[in-house]
Amino acid sequence: MNTYYVNGTAEVLNSVAGLVTNYGNTTTDHYPVLTRYAFGNVPPTLNPVANQTVCYTNTPQTIPLSGITAGPESGQTTTLSVSSSNTALIDQLSIVQGSNGTGTINYHISNNTSTAATITVTVKDNGGTANGGNDTFTQTFNINVNPLPDVFISSNQSQEVSKGTVVNLTATGGQTYTWANAADIISGQNTATLAVRPKATTTYTVTATNASGCTSTRSVTVNVRDDYQLVANNIITPNGDGKNDYWVIKNIDYYPNNTVKVFDKAGRLVYSKQGYANDWNGTYNNSPLSQGTYYYVIDFGAGLGVFKGYITIIRD
After folding, report:
1. 140: which of 31, 77, 256, 286 lies 20 to 30 Å off by Cα?
2. Which residues are 34's β-sheet partners?
3. Sheet bearing 185-187, strands edge to edge
4. Per residue in 217-261, pLDDT tens?
5. For residue 86, how many C-alpha atoms fall within 13 Å in the half-sphere facing its CB?
6. What pTM was computed for the model?
7. CATH of the domain at 188
8. Residues spanned by the domain of 69
9. Lowest mean pLDDT across 20-29, 56-65, 190-199, 252-261
10. Three-state SS for 112?
């Protein structure tokens, strides 16, 4: 049997035997009989589309398509359509046919929940269904949506703090946390709790990641008052044991334009420094001052206020 394809049909050449009887003599001749068979339309094609697992986003998303053909027949064209099993999740869905067998699915996710939708893509050509043909091909895949972490930041201080106050900012809602670079961070940049000591009003931002690998960011602003809240130790024990060896004025490092003066009971100036750096150990001209009570004045300049108090030197 020989098969030929002509203009979309098959011509099958069958050899059949014709028996010719001639006066008792039998001879056998072979002659061709041509039979034509009409084949149905071959269905269109579309390359497989993998399941999609995505984190929720309000930004429209796309999925590329490829391998779109109308089958081996020439002169046919294709049209595309798409549908979703979960229109509450995928609230916008469309499909665009490109060139060279490509296309694009456009979709939008409506809510930040953990759920899924089955997407059905249909390719249809114009070859019809005559003679048992098929002009349609469908393919399905899933879009699985993972929710974003719901991040919250709390503070161990009030919304507004004095300059130099240490503030602990604690994030919740994720499994891991990364704080963005910002001014006056003390520690905890890759942990849930960030310790800061801001000189000025500053915004701190954290990125939280959940078990699905989805991320969210949240920011908090620490408002800072420039109110000269200083706390000065009133005792020093300069004996070299590492405890109270130096006179410490908390937060003075955030007010560098200061002048510190210390006087004895008789009013004699025993210490003076501009830009005090918590480094006085009870000496005068490099000699230890005697044990007793002394008085200090901290001046920040005209109109900025003067702070006064006393300090006691104890020597064992």
Report:
1. 77
2. 13
3. 152-155, 167-172, 193-196, 185-187
4. 999 999 999 888 899 999 999 988 989 999 999 999 999 999 999
5. 18
6. 0.76
7. 2.60.40.10
8. 52-146
9. 20-29
10. coil
Single residue among 160, 190, 225 that ends a domain in this structure: 225
Strands 78-84 and 90-97: unpaired
Tokens 């310790």 belong to 195
Last residue of a domain, one of 95, 130, 146: 146
Q: What angle do CA 67, 118, 60 make, to 5 degrees?
A: 75
Q: How would you classify the pairing of strands 61-65 and 52-55?
A: unpaired
Structure tokens belonging to residue 207: 């990125």
The type of residue at 80 is L
Q: What is the dihedral of CA 189, 193, 194, 197, to 10 degrees?
A: -160
| Structural tokens at position 75 | 């002169």
Strand partners, 55: 146
Environment class of 30 (CB within 10 Å of its CB; exposed 0-12, middle 13-18, buried 19+):
exposed
Write out the two tokens for 146: 């993972």
Contacts of 141 (CB under 8 A, 6+ apart): 48, 49, 50, 51, 52, 118, 119, 121
State the pLDDT at residue 7.
38
pLDDT in tens, 3-29: 333 334 333 333 333 333 343 444 445
Q: Measuring CA to CA, which residue among 256, 260, 265 is closest to residue 292?
A: 265
